[in-house]
């Protein structure tokens, strides 16, 4: 990892993948195919891209039960405990509808209700992520979403990974389809003979999935277009170099475009972490991926003070931030921009990925400046409630009419005035 002392040279910004012209053309073709040919298109695209011709798209209850019953009991217990932790955390985010009565007898408020249906995309192929099931399904469940649909691409045998199916069963998902890629997004957005459309789509995927989510936005809602993973560690000389290096590499192994940065007040720590990263890279199964990520998007930035370090963090607005300093909690509370903040030596980033409870679907590429982790609010909608009393309107209708005429909207003004015409007002 390169060591730098110029803040201008430090950034998490990577070009947001908009896809090549050819990739966009393919996605448009697939989505149109799903609209026109529905199930037939899904089966054809699955054979073309996943190498298997399916006789049916749906995952049966028997498949779910078999995966659950034959799964390693110890791993199953771990998944169930993680699901309980994630549920407990998201339960704290629930909000209730509220109403208030004003002195003039009017009622104002906000009605909060869940979205009717949500589609969750779970990556497949070489990637099998039960954690993605939990992080997308559980907040939707907590919010009260009635229908949660999961789609994921099958392997060459026409199956979904047992870990994904077990996670789905634990999370309470019963409607699951073996379809992935842009065609899976199209099915969720537009519907087919087998799959009814949903109101919102969440979950990560490859570039084709990302482009498809962008294309269907407006017909349905989506969560976000997530970029490659990123981690920033803010550390002083109390941090342990081997642990800092291990945490930086935990994100570098995700993707060659993942970003790992250490911001530190200790030049001594900087050099030790540099050495540790190189040493640990040679022992990683995904060394080639992590090494390219570290080379292209990794850096160690030496700052003159913790205050300067916090300023750097706020400019970067990282997806994951670890604070490994003296009085780490106090330092963390000064940070304004970060998706998830891990405080202290024992809060390694994977704790949040899998087990602690907070959501690991986080804003990337600097968007933590204005956005938040996936949460229960993402699965509810809010309606404003206005029940004006006769007295309230009589007291204020002339002001409202004047405001409307200020904007040149005469019909608006006459609408409120119409209530009092018989009174000679």
UniProtKB/TrEMBL annotation:
Spell out the InterPro entries in the cross-references: Ald_DH/histidinol_DH, Histidinol_DH_CS, Histidinol_DH_monofunct, Hstdl_DH
Keywords from the UniProt entry: Amino-acid biosynthesis, Histidine biosynthesis, Metal-binding, NAD, Oxidoreductase, Zinc
- Cofactor field: Zn(2+)
Q: Which reaction does it catalyse?
A: L-histidinol + 2 NAD(+) + H2O = L-histidine + 2 NADH + 3 H(+)
Binding residues annotated for substrate, in chain numbering:
229, 251, 254, 320, 353, 407, 412
Output the Gene3D superfamilies linked to this UniProt entry: 1.20.5.1300, Nitrogenase molybdenum iron protein domain
The entry's Zn(2+)-binding residues are 251, 254, 353, 412
Q: In which pathway does it act?
A: Amino-acid biosynthesis; L-histidine biosynthesis; L-histidine from 5-phospho-alpha-D-ribose 1-diphosphate: step 9/9
Active site per the UniProt annotation: 319-320
Q: What biological processes does GO assign it?
A: L-histidine biosynthetic process
Which residues take part in binding NAD(+)?
121, 183, 206
The EC number of this protein is 1.1.1.23
Q: Which domain of life is it from?
A: Bacteria
Kindly list the GO CC terms recorded for this protein: cytosol
Question: What Gene Ontology molecular function terms does this protein carry?
Answer: histidinol dehydrogenase activity; NAD binding; zinc ion binding
In the record's cofactor note, how is the cofactor described as bound?
Answer: Binds 1 zinc ion per subunit.
What the record says about family reads: Belongs to the histidinol dehydrogenase family.
The entry's function note states: Catalyzes the sequential NAD-dependent oxidations of L-histidinol to L-histidinaldehyde and then to L-histidine.
The name under which this protein is listed is: Histidinol dehydrogenase
Origin species: Bacillus coahuilensis p1.1.43
Recite the lineage of the species. Bacteria, Bacillati, Bacillota, Bacilli, Bacillales
């Amino acid at each position: 990892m390169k060591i730098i002392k110029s803040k201008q040279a430090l950034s998490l910004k990577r070009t947001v993948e908009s896809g090549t012209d050819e990739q966009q053309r393919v996605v448009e073709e697939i989505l149109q195919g799903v609209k026109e040919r529905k199930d037939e298109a899904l089966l054809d695209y699955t054979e073309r891209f996943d190498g298997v011709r399916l006789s049916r798209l749906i995952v049966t209850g028997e498949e779910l039960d078999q995966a659950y019953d034959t799964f390693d009991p110890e791993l199953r217990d771990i998944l169930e405990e993680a699901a309980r932790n994630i549920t407990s955390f998201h339960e704290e985010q629930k909000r209730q509808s509220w109403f208030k009565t004003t002195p003039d007898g009017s009622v104002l408020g906000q009605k909060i209700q869940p979205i009717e249906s949500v589609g969750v995309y779970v990556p497949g192929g070489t990637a099998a992520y039960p954690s993605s099931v939990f992080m997308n399904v559980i907040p939707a469940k907590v919010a009260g979403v009635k229908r949660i649909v999961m789609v994921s691409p099958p392997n060459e045998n026409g199956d979904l990974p047992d870990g994904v199916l077990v996670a789905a069963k634990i999370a309470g998902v019963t409607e699951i389809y073996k379809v992935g890629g842009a065609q899976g997004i199209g099915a969720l957005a537009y519907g087919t003979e087998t799959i009814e459309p949903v109101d919102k789509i969440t979950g990560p995927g490859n570039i084709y999935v990302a482009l498809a989510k962008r294309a269907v936005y407006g017909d349905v809602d989506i969560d976000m277009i997530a970029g490659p993973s990123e981690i920033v560690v803010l550390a002083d000389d109390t941090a342990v170099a081997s642990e800092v290096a291990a945490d930086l590499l935990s994100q570098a192994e995700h993707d060659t475009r993942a970003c790992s940065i250490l911001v530190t007040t200790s030049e001594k720590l900087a050099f030790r972490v540099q050495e540790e990263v190189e040493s640990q890279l040679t022992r990683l199964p995904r060394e080639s991926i992590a090494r390219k990520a570290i080379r292209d998007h990794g850096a160690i930035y030496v700052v003159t003070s913790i205050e300067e370090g916090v300023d750097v963090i706020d400019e970067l607005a990282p997806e994951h931030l670890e604070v490994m300093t003296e009085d780490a909690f106090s330092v963390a509370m000064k940070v304004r921009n970060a998706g998830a903040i891990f405080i202290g030596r024992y809060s390694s980033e994977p704790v949040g990925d899998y087990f602690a409870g907070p959501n690991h679907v986080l804003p990337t590429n600097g968007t933590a400046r204005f956005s938040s982790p996936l949460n229960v609010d993402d699965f509810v909608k809010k309606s404003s409630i206005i029940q004006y009393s006769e007295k309230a309107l009589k007291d204020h209708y002339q002001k409202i009419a004047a405001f409307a005429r200020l904007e040149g909207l005469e019909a608006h003004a006459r609408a409120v005035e119409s209530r009092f015409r018989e009174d000679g007002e």
